[in-house]
């Protein structure tokens, strides 16, 4: 059927935009660069018979570390009908170039490689929303990696966002990759749930971010 | 007489300062008057000053604010500090601000509302609440800031000052104090109240789903373990019931504003339906 215009400021558009942004973060983000949604300009929806719902989005993104640095992009998202285990199909096209993050990433890479002991940290940001400057790349890496988890687990009725790194432990490796085991908290907007999620993240300056293993955790047993 | 000379006698014609124990007061007065020695009282009660200073020192050591001008509005505060702030604001502005206890939370914490009024009787009023969802810390912090801002506006005759000419403002800064205390000590992400209802393993009700408007409709959960659990029935939560009782008995609340964080949205009634409210345009 034909594509139907959606209210860009509506709830559904927001969810699809969050998914597309997460996906793009996974593909193009890293310890030196994070992107967040600035605005959803346009959203259209098309029902594809026996397949699912397809959305066409026009987005504006901004650099987390420099909010005046923006980039436009278009996204196509297909949520599959019925089966819950199929992640949505996502395609994102950038209109322009992203800021270079090579230097920051190289600096982070060298710093971690030269540590005497494996890095361990928790509560990033802390309860006051503060991220210590030296932890910024660790946080951005988690953000990029969480984009994978968000992408794989999103439906039209969810809107995920990384809320906090509960704990991160570096995993010793004999090759040139950096590996971190993260316990993150995802906030799901529709249900308002805070969901602990464990993920193993590989990263290399030339090879980008990879989530090699991830697992949803039981809810905080706070009663 | 056990007189304590704070300025010693230096010769005729020179003033003398004396701290007089209470028990000697009368005797000394009689003596001075009998000898035509003029005197004046510099400090009525030295003990009161000493007590006040001791309190201030304890307060500054424990981190409690001393005045609403030295209060740090750019950082998050504990429940104790916020309640202390409220008392300071009232003490500093007794003709404008008063504190009302509208009820008690599940864990028996007082539910305080600040009333801003320039007079009149039961004037039409605006209600503002912050912190109904305890993890939304920037809202309680904003409530503290609003309170100070209202006072400053009034003093400078700008901003909301014209509103106060004809209306009162009621502001509940920590609408969910049990949840707030829990976010400080146990779980930063706690959202709901801390009530236990029979037959459930999970604690807490989403106070913003507990109102008697479309109760149990879309957007709320009947699962007690859910973050949006609406509760066993409308107004089951004392935090919510207290506000309902207050608003109903006041009878003249003209606007009701509830502050939340993380969304950058302005929402108007009603949350459980997509049908616009009758006065949507005006809103």
Provide an overview of this structure.
Chain B: GO terms for molecular function: metallocarboxypeptidase activity; zinc ion binding. Chain B: Its EC number is 3.4.17.1. Chain B: It catalyses: Release of a C-terminal amino acid, but little or no action with -Asp, -Glu, -Arg, -Lys or -Pro. Chain B: This is Carboxypeptidase A1. Chain B: It is an enzyme of class 3 (hydrolase). Chain A: Belongs to the protease inhibitor I47 (latexin) family. The complex is a heterodimer of chains A (223) and B (283). Helices cover 22% and strands 45% of the residues of chain A. Chain A has 223 residues and is of the alpha+beta class. Chain A has two domains: 4-95, Nuclear Transport Factor 2, Chain: A (Roll), CATH 3.10.450; 101-216, Roll (Nuclear Transport Factor 2, Chain: A), CATH 3.10.450.10. A five-stranded antiparallel sheet of chain A has the order 1-2-3-4-5. In chain A, α1 packs across α3. The mean pLDDT of chain A is 94. By secondary structure, chain B is α/β, with parallel strands linked by helices. Chain B folds into two domains: 4-44, no CATH class; 67-269 and 277-282, Zn peptidases (Aminopeptidase). Helix content of chain B is 31%, strand content 13%. Chain B is built from seven helices and seven strands; from the N terminus they run ββαααβββααβααβ. Chain B has helices spanning 25-34, 46-61, 79-92, 137-156, 161-166, 177-185, 238-250; strands at 4-7, 17-19, 97-104, 110-116, 125-129, 168-172, 253-258. In chain B, the strands form two sheets. A five-stranded mixed sheet of chain B has the order 3-4-6-5-7, sandwiched between helices. A two-stranded antiparallel sheet of chain B has the order 1-2. The relative contact order of chain B is 0.11. The model of chain B has no long low-confidence stretch (mean pLDDT 91). The A-B interface holds A 127-128, 163-164, 185, 191-194, 219-220, 222-223 and B 75-76, 137, 182-183, 186-191, 201-203, 206, 221, 225-228.
């Amino acid at each position: 059927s034909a594509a139907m215009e959606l209210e860009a400021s509506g709830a559904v558009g927001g969810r699809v935009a969050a998914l597309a942004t997460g996906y793009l973060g996974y593909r193009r983000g890293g310890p030196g660069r994070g992107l967040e949604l600035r605005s959803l300009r346009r959203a259209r929806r098309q029902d594809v018979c026996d397949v699912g719902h397809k959305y066409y989005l026009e987005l504006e993104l901004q650099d987390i570390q420099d909010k005046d640095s923006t980039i436009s992009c278009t996204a196509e998202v297909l949520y599959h009908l019925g089966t819950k285990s199929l992640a949505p199909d996502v395609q994102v096209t950038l209109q322009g170039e992203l800021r270079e993050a090579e230097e920051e990433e190289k600096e982070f890479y060298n710093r971690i490689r030269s540590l005497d002991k494996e890095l361990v940290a928790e509560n990033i940001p802390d309860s006051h929303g503060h991220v210590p400057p030296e932890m910024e790349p660790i946080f951005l890496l988690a953000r990029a990696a969480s984009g994978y988890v968000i992408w794989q687990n999103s439906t039209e009725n969810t809107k995920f966002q990384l809320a906090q790194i509960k704990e991160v432990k570096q995993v010793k490796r004999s090759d040139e990759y950096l590996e971190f085991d993260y316990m993150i908290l995802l906030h799901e907007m529709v249900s308002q749930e805070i969901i602990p999620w464990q993920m193993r993240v590989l990263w290399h300056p030339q090879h980008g971010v990879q989530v090699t293993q991830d697992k949803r955790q039981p809810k905080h047993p706070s009663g | 007489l056990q007189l304590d000379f704070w300025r010693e006698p230096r010769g005729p014609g020179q003033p003398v300062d004396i701290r007089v124990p209470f028990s000697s007061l009368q005797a000394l007065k009689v003596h001075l008057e009998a000898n035509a020695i003029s005197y004046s009282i510099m400090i009525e009660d030295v003990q009161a000053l000493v007590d006040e200073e001791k309190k201030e020192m304890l307060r500054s050591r424990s981190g409690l604010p001393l005045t609403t001008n030295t209060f740090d509005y750019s950082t998050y505060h504990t429940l104790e500090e916020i309640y202390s702030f409220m008392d300071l604001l009232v003490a500093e502005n007794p003709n404008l601000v008063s504190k009302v206890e509208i009820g008690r939370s599940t864990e028996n914490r007082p539910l305080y509302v600040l009333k801003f009024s320039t007079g009149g009787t039961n004037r039409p009023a605006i209600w503002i609440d912050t912190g109904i969802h305890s993890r939304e810390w920037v809202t309680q912090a904003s409530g503290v800031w609003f309170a100070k801002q209202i006072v400053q506006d009034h003093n400078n005759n700008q901003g909301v000052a014209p509103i106060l000419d004809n209306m009162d403002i009621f502001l509940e800064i920590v609408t969910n104090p049990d949840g707030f205390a829990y976010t400080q000590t146990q779980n930063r992400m706690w959202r709901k109240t801390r009530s236990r209802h029979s037959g459930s393993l999970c604690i807490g009700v989403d106070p913003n789903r507990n109102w008697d408007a479309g109760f149990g409709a879309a957007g709320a959960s009947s699962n007690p373990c859910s973050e949006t659990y609406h509760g066993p029935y409308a107004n089951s939560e004392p935090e919510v019931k207290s506000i309902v009782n207050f608003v109903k008995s006041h009878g003249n609340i003209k606007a009701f504003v509830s502050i939340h964080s993380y969304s950058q949205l302005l929402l108007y009634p009603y949350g459980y339906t997509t049908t616009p409210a009758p006065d949507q345009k005006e809103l």
